[in-house]
Amino acid sequence: MDPKRSDWIIRLIETPEEMRLVEGLQRLVWPGSETDVVPSHLLLTAAHNGGLVLGAFAGAELVGFVFGFPGFYETPDGPRLKHCSHMLGVHPDWRNRGLGFALKRAQWQLVRHQGIDRITWTYDPLLSRNAHLNIARLGAVCNTYRRSEYGEMRDGLNAGLPSDRFQVDWWVNSRRVERRLSRRARPALTLDQYLAARPSLLEARPDSTGSLHPTDEPPRPEGVILLVEIPSNFEAIRRSDLALARDWRFYTREVFERAFAAGYLVTDFVYDQGRSFYVLAHGESTL
Ligand SMILES: CC(C)(COP(=O)(O)OP(=O)(O)OC[C@H]1O[C@@H](n2cnc3c(N)ncnc32)[C@H](O)[C@@H]1OP(=O)(O)O)[C@@H](O)C(=O)NCCC(=O)NCCS
User: What share of residues in the chain are helix, strand, coil (percent, to 5)?
Assistant: First the structure.
């Protein structure tokens, strides 16, 4: 086990001084656009009105945070309360040690305590690490694709590409989520196990340099289980080949919009043997 793994504690952030640390960490995680930083006065107002700002501290240093606030969603019986999780960020030197998972787990506990049963947030569906965390580890599901959700973004992680997002649903009282967050979480299914179920498979195409390209024409989604491959290193592709990154954006937009319209739901994500696949199940057979 990484000896640093337990070198941090997670707690609520409620003071103006500590909210300034959250501003500072945002600048580090999403560099380059000062106007996109959520300011401390807004974080404080949210925190004083049912919002949650949770920080992970290593000594006095803030090394991760998650921020969200209450909102509503529509149901046939009228509006219902949910928690909108807006930002999750971990200091680059502290990633891949379970901090993102631990922050979300703490958020899950507090939101349940507020009597709310649904948390939603958005993320870029081409980011394999985020997909692994959100879908595979946390048990969120998705059947909502949002085109250019935030318009033209200016920060260093997002500039140059349409800001398409998955909006995920985290049903915090569901058995799916409880199982995945339990200390004895279910072992992840491997790529071979999924392939043994003979799913429909949308594989990427490697070129002579090993770079992954989307297939030319996405086929119509079919079958009970659909596996959709994405690159495991999209951030690097975006930095080195913006045209290829855009191809991936428009290809996956078409694949997921079609699949969601046809009743599929993203239920799992497999990151195995260096490859990354979304697992979609036909809604009628899983809901
Ligand atoms: C997304 C983010 C919060 C994750 O934080 P973190 O502390 O590294 O998260 P964790 O360590 O709990 O989980 C990361 C998981 O991704 C896995 N992973 C790493 N690289 C991966 C890849 N290329 N593909 C798939 N999974 C990957 C890690 O192995 C780990 O999984 P494990 O716990 O099963 O081993 C962090 O990377 C970050 O701040 N990113 C920039 C901002 C951002 O994208 N925020 C979220 C949207 S608002």
Answer: 35, 30, 35
Lowest mean pLDDT among 1-5, 24-28, 44-48, 157-161: 1-5
User: Cα separation of 270 and 215, whole Å?
Assistant: 19
Sheet holding 78-90, edge to edge: 9-12, 52-58, 61-75, 78-90, 118-123, 165-171, 141-146, 264-272, 275-282, 225-230, 200-202
Percent of the chain topping pLDDT 90: 82
The single-letter code of the amino acid at 1 is: M
Which residue has the CA at smallest separation from atom 43 of ligand 1? 89
Ligand 1 atom closest to the CA of 97, numbered from 1 = 11
Span from the CA of 84 to the centroid of ligand 1 (angstroms): 20
132-190 residue pLDDT tens: 999 999 999 999 999 999 887 777 777 789 999 999 999 999 999 999 999 887 788 99
Mean pLDDT over all residues of the chain? Answer: 93
* 110 φψ region: left (φ > 0), alpha (ψ -120 to 50), beta (else): alpha
pTM of structure: 0.95
Ligand 1, residues at Cβ distance < 6 Å: 29, 87-90, 95-101, 123, 128-130, 132-133, 137, 232, 271, 276
Cβ–Cβ under 8 Å, residues 191 and 272: yes
